[in-house]
Amino acid sequence: MARINILDTETSNKIAAGEVVERPSSVVKELIENSIDSSSKNITIEIEDGGQKSIKVLDDGHGIHPEDIEKAFTPHATSKIYSIEDIYTISTMGFRGEALASIAAVSNTVLKSRIDEFEYGKEISINGGIIDFIRDTGCNVGTSIEVKNLFFNVPARKKFLKSSSRETAYISDIINRLALANSSVSFKLINNGKKVLNTYGTGKLADAIRYVYGKSISDNIISFEKHSDIVSVYGYIGNSDISRGSRNNQSVFVNKRYIKSKLITAAVENAFKSFLTINKYPFFIVFLDIFPEFIDVNVHPTKSEIKFRDDREIFKLTFDAVHEALRNSLRNSFDIPPDEENKLKHEEIHSDKRESSTVQLPIDLNSFDQKNYKNEDYGNNRNYDCNFQGLSNFKEVLKETRYNKTDFNYDNINRNEKLQREETVNIYDNSRETVDNNDISTKITLQENPYIEKSVMEEKIAKFPPLTIIGQFRNTYIIAEASDNLYLIDQHAAHEKVLFEKYKRSIKENNVVSQILITPSVIELTPEDYDYYLENCDLFKKSGFDIESFGENTVNIREVPLILGKPDIKNLFMDILDNLKNMGSGEAWEIKYSSIAKLACKSAVKANDSLSNIEMKTLIEDLRFIEDPFTCPHGRPTIVKFTLNELEKKFKRIQ
């Protein structure tokens, strides 16, 4: 039977060092944070051989009192806190009192420090946790510490270090991030005698970004800012030109502490999703300033993780700040008329509200040989021509009309079904005309009628100026002009975004129609997943799901949203739960983003579909008045602008 032993001090210190000092970059991070806590304005870092041979950090901070020099290397010795209550109001980078003791236990360390009250400083030398000497020395006000032969007495840890160039890259990365968080501090990094980074401590975040990432990055970033009672979020997010295939250029700071947070990363990436090309990650720098009592920084020895008291509020504030900034940036890239001209009632789509009775439209969607219906009380005849490519879009028109949903069976609709002929059906007028039988599209002429229910009556603001249609190129791109600018519109991407926002709005306004499953889907969950479901059951209900508990850790799904068509119920439910885990929280339309985007893509007009001038104009007008018209749900542009100046340069009219 094994007996319990008490580890000696040397062994326990080395084990503790493994938690704090993972590699040379960990040493650099801890030492720089100490310098920042001492109110340094200039910090110089010198490294050799990727930090494995030597790391030296010099600062001009307050320094260490001579009587505290030896104390500083004692485990759990700190000047940052005095009791456990202080942890919940901590505002400094360090507080655990483990860094210097852990570093000295696995290296040869020499520290010199002087405070302003003394004309000389103190020097201490520690070799593998054992003090060699303490003596008076001449030095400037501040602290300098040199760490040599890291992990010399822990060969197993040293074997797992990467090459010198890789370790240098890690050190450079952490210094870059600390420089971003402390733009008022001047940082200088010297690698093997060569200066590789120099910031000037101007106090401006934009300057720090330029010093660290260069001009190409700083010219393609968008600022954002938003505040609540307990937290402020601000920073910069890059446009699609500087997006990358990895998350290396993403930084999150809470009270200027660099952390890794899946919650905040998910909030930013979800806000950017509709503006970003697929399989790319955005560049961003996010700062959260929050009252210390609303976070817990005592989660990990490296202090790289933080717990928030209210994850949902943090997620929503970050999401809204980034999304609004991106939307405004895209709007500003187009010529937008003055507000007085923008606030137009979109009368071509949203007619005046009138009191009326409900009209049922018993139309069999599988047969268009139907009688037309006329309302004798109908007035203000205005014709609207809408060419809906395929039966799916005809279905959408009927869904906007007040009807008894049991009269229709959408499952019988096949959008790819080839129609034998095309007819014009006027629902409120007895006129009829026959068109080319070879055209597979169905043209429907709708007249403004008091019986069509209008869900949106508020004023709509145009996001770009009215366009004059020039024509259609290869039945795919709409060519238009306005003022001295030429516009190209991808008809599929544009119609896809119009439909996407329509579906999204119906979910946000809780106007979701659900379909009852013939056979309810029973799903057995893990205890963790079941807890996530219980926490967010109201969100599922708003999304159009009807779910009930069915025994321990089991749910029974009886209804799903109609707009999702025929989803794989189990996979859809689990995907939503996974999104909730990553996002912390969210709106119903956000967690079903990919499903809504896929539905919009299926229903939209396709490339190579010929459109009339009226159809093109209607599509562009719809696009002008939606919330975010400039990119499709998959991040591709819907509209591209060419200025007259750009065109004349192409033709060498101007230089």
Describe this entry's structure for a reader.
This protein is of the alpha+beta class and 655 residues long. The protein has four domains: 190 residues, Heat Shock Protein 90; 113 residues, Ribosomal Protein S5, domain 2, CATH 3.30.230.10; 103 residues, no CATH class; 190 residues, 2-Layer Sandwich (formyl-coa transferase, domain 3), CATH 3.30.1540. It is 30% helix and 24% strand. The protein has an eight-stranded mixed β-sheet, with helices on one face. The longest helix is centred in the middle third of the chain and has 22 residues. The relative contact order is 0.08. About 18% of the residues have low confidence.
Q: Can you give keywords for this protein?
A:
single chain, 655 residues, alpha+beta, Heat Shock Protein 90, 4 domains, 8-stranded mixed β-sheet, 5-stranded mixed β-sheet, 19 helices
Number of helices: 19
Question: What is the straight-line distance between the termini?
Answer: 88 Å
In percent, how much strand structure appears in the residues? Answer: 15-25%
Uncertain segments of ≥5 residues (pLDDT<50)?
A: 338-458
Q: Provide the domain count.
A: 4
CATH architecture group name of the largest domain = 2-Layer Sandwich
The H-level CATH homologous superfamily of the largest domain, spelled out, is: Histidine kinase-like ATPase, C-terminal domain
CATH fold title of the largest domain: Heat Shock Protein 90
Number of strands: 28
Largest sheet: 8 strands, mixed
Radius of gyration: 32 Å
Order of strands, main sheet, comes to 5-4-3-6-2-1-7-8
Instruction: Give the overall pLDDT as a whole number.
Output: 75
